[in-house]
UniProtKB/TrEMBL annotation:
InterPro entries: Chloro/Mito_RNA_Process (IPR052500), Homing_endonucl (IPR027434), LAGLIDADG_dom (IPR004860). The lineage of its organism: Eukaryota, Fungi, Dikarya, Basidiomycota, Agaricomycotina. It comes from Postia placenta MAD-698-R-SB12. This is Homing endonuclease LAGLIDADG domain-containing protein. Mitochondrial DNA endonuclease involved in intron homing. One of its GO terms (molecular function) is endonuclease activity.
């Protein structure tokens, strides 16, 4: 898989790869069942994000990476309450093996040392659509699935590569300072789909 992500430029030929980096940082998962086998990608989102998950699914489907032509609605039970969601998995493909090695060197998702070369505004946008949210006066990215050292490293990368003033808040979340939010929004907004623009404008209740 091509990994020429050192520039902030986002040529159309690299859009899928850049998107994939953001999805892996967010709710996407890479799975490799056998040591010498290939890797597949899994993605799931709540039914309230139907337009977004369909958008992502259609991109993978158009790459001929999926067996399914549409996604079934599924149920999950948490603390006695039923939640509806959509999910899909791709075919097992050699194209994903290099990224699996980067992000899952010991079988658990981590932040690779080369993440600064991989991240672009497209990656940021898909990461934000998965895990971001406005919080007055700044912006949070929910990175609590990673260890504190990895989250701090991500915050440093955002600061150094994109000139975003960041810090780490409680529950290992990245906080983008208010003074950097306008610049941050200018980076990601061109790639945010209409149904997810609320991530940049609405604060959680």
């Amino acid at each position: 898989m091509k990994r020429n992500f050192s520039s902030n430029e986002t040529p159309n030929t690299g859009f899928f790869n850049q998107m994939l980096i953001g999805l892996i940082l967010g709710d996407g998962t890479l799975v490799k069942k056998y040591k010498n086998g290939n890797t597949y990608f899994q993605f799931a989102q709540s039914i309230i994000h139907k337009e977004y998950v369909n958008h992502v699914f259609d991109i993978f489907k158009n790459q001929n990476y999926c067996h399914l032509t549409s996604m079934p609605e599924k149920d999950a039970v948490f603390k006695g309450k039923v939640y509806k969601y959509f999910s899909f998995s791709t075919k097992s493909l050699p194209e994903f093996n290099a990224l699996y090695t980067l992000f899952y060197p010991e079988g658990t998702k981590v932040i690779p040392a080369t993440i600064g070369d991989l991240l672009t505004p497209v990656s940021l946008a898909y990461w934000v659509m998965d895990d971001g949210g406005k919080c007055v006066p700044g912006f949070h990215i929910n990175t609590n699935g990673f260890t504190l050292p990895h989250v701090q490293f991500l915050a440093d990368v955002l600061s150094e590569k994109f000139n975003l003033k960041c810090s780490v808040h409680g529950r290992n979340r990245i906080y983008i300072w208010a003074k950097s939010v306008p610049h941050f929004e200018s980076l990601v907004k061109p790639y945010i789909i209409p149904s997810m623009v609320y991530k940049l404008t609405e604060t959680p209740e």
